[in-house]
Amino acid sequence: MSTRTDTTTLPTATREIQLASRPHGRPLPENFRLAGTELPVLQDGQILVRNLFMSVDPYMRGRMNDVKSYSAPFSLDAALDGGAVGEVIASRSADRQVGDAVVHSLGWREHAVLDAGATTPARTDLAPAPAFLGALGMTGLTAYAGLLKVAGFKAGEVVFVSGAAGAVGSLVGQIAKALGASRVIGSAGSPEKVARLLELGFDAAFDYHDGPVAGQLAAAAGDRGIDVYFDNVGGEHLEAALSALTVGGRVAMCGAISQYNSTEPTPAPRNLMQAIGKQLTLKGFLVSGYWQHMPEFVETMSGWLADGTVRYDETIVDGLENAPQAFMDLLDGANTGKMLVRL
Ligand SMILES: NC(=O)c1ccc[n+]([C@@H]2O[C@H](COP(=O)([O-])OP(=O)(O)OC[C@H]3O[C@@H](n4cnc5c(N)ncnc54)[C@H](OP(=O)(O)O)[C@@H]3O)[C@@H](O)[C@H]2O)c1
Question: Taking the model in full, what pTM does it have?
Answer without folding.
Answer: 0.97
